[in-house]
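Feature request disguised as a bug report, sorry. It would help if multi-protein outputs had a clear separator. Right now it looks like this:
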Amino acid sequence: MERVNRIWNHTYYQQCLEKITVLESDRQFCRHTPEHFMDVARLTWIFAMEEGLDIERGLVYAAALLHDIGRFRQYEDGTPHDVASVEIAEKLLPECGYTQQETAVIVDMIASHRKKDSQDGINRLFYKADKMSRSCFLCPAEKECNWSAEKKNMVIRY
């Protein structure tokens, strides 16, 4: 997990995270916090183990740390956050010691985390974990949320 910690400690990553924190300080809906990133990582890893997928845990955690990191660009200039997150990941991952092949796997997970259709393997599990990481049944803003009823987690489930 040394390389995952390189991502976390990278100056640019921390700058992006700070921008998200400031921009979402008054957000009534789910925020994009390190807690969310870690929930996505842990759920994805559990799902991958259950299905016997052969993927390095560090790649899952790297993707989870980076999947929403471009959110600030969506607020600032309208760039979809998955697109912005891919751009940031492509910059940071080589600087943190990831190979081209590893970067491609991580970037693919990030790029597909908002696309339910035509996913398989780790991308399907990553999408599922991203959605299941939200506890909509606890959210005071659930009724105003624009997520569809099928995406909302209104009961405790696994």
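(second protein starts here, but nothing in the output says so)
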Amino acid sequence: MRPLSASELIEVWERGVGQSSVERAITLLSACAGEPVEGLWALSIGQRDARLATIYERLFGETLDAFAECPQCAERLEYSMSARVLDLTATADRNVEDLALVCGEISLRLCLPNSLDLSAAAACDTVAAARTLLARRCIVQAEEGGNAVPVPTLPDSLVDRIATRLKEADPQAETLINLTCAVCRHQWQVVLDIERFLWVRLAALAKRLLREVHILARAYGWREADILALSAVRRQFYLEMAGA
């Protein structure tokens, strides 16, 4: 993972503004990893999110600060966790194309869902439809009694079994955080959305940089590229001199 310059960070933010969360995840990875985009789309969700966590840690440190609202009493809860709950080493060596599942007479060969699958599922009208589509997209081969079975003809009752098998194979695809309300003691879980954490912090940093460009351009007449090329220390010194 390579560090982003100030101008590169703003370019990544600008590209991501109009993108979906799935597209933004790939944009962020591509900018920092320097790998072909096609390969990044093919990463399992656990592998993708672990890499996003690595980017977050290198840009902003290990701590993730968040808040949630208690579903029982609506109390606002602030909490922190470590980005290292998503461990790249836990998913890096997994075989994502050779998962077997036997359901009665039906034998399935599965692959882990990737960002392309999530993007397709996001276009569904309901959660149930998205879940079914995602499960079916992860079926590489289906057989019954030694004969191939077309995926569209498989019963929807297999969806839960497929989802369980995929979660076992890529547990970091959905990291759940246990929370307890300090007021009513209600306990619940929230999903750790590392892309959202990273995007919020990166967007805030990009906007701060643009405000600094605005102040220094007005004060000294410098070009945006020249201002962003300054080190953070020198830029801050000029901001102080400009009275900001």
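Even a blank line would do. Unrelated, but nice: The longest strand covers residues 63-69.
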